[in-house]
Amino acid sequence: MRESKIKKRERATEIVTRLRRLYPDSKCSLNYKSPHELLTATILSAQCTDHRVNIVTKDLFLKYKRPADFAYCNVTELAKDIHSCGYHNQKSRSIQGTSLIIVEEYNEEVPDNLETLIKLPGVGRKTANCVLGEIYKVPSMVIDTHMVRIMGLLGFTKTKDAKKIELEMMEIFEETDWTNLTHMIIDHGRAICIARRPQCGECVLADICPSSSV
Ligand code: SF4
């Protein structure tokens, strides 16, 4: 039976309430000390775990301290420095290209709007929304693999297209919950609603999840 938008919104509110109780300290798991460091870490996190990114950036941010250090670096050396994050050639070019624009066009400041951010090399909606939510406190929905999978299981979307899901979820969830929702869903995806073996018997959402096996 098709669920009305009102019912979906009610269920979404209840899901947020329960997840917030379960994960009261949910937050971005990438380590950073400046907007540019978060932008760099987020570019590195594509197809890589946050844990691995944090290991790499620990030394990386000691070696490259400012956006200008990345902008005018030897890109081959940068690729070596980020090698273990995967896609190192592509990511090093993105980080250098993005840093160069930030230094030369934005006075070393990371832009604070989606339209400008997504024009930077290697910066998609996911990275841009992460920076906007974390740094500039703009309500932003980051659609990563956990969000795609779990929003599907929760019956809120049928597509796997991240941009479509972002727009659909913005209709269902309260704006004030957008930024934190992703962090809570990531925590839930790691602890309970694990890919290929969701622990529905231990899930606080089991009675309101259409995919529950219990
Ligand atoms: S009930 Fe199962 S499928 Fe639904 S969110 Fe919980 S663990 Fe995932």
The end-to-end distance, rounded to whole angstroms, is 19 Å
Which segments are poorly predicted (pLDDT under 50) over 5 or more consecutive residues? Answer: none
What is the helix content? 55-70%
* Helix-strand sequence: HHHHHHHHHHH
Which molecules are bound besides the chains?
Answer: iron/sulfur cluster
Tell me the total number of β-strands. 0
The radius of gyration is 18 Å
CATH hierarchy: architecture of the largest domain: Orthogonal Bundle
Report on the biggest sheet. none
Class by alpha and beta content? mainly alpha
Determine the number of helices (DSSP H or I, runs of at least 4 residues).
Answer: 11
Write down the overall geometry: elongated
Strand composition percent: under 5%
CATH topology of the largest domain: Endonuclease III, domain 1
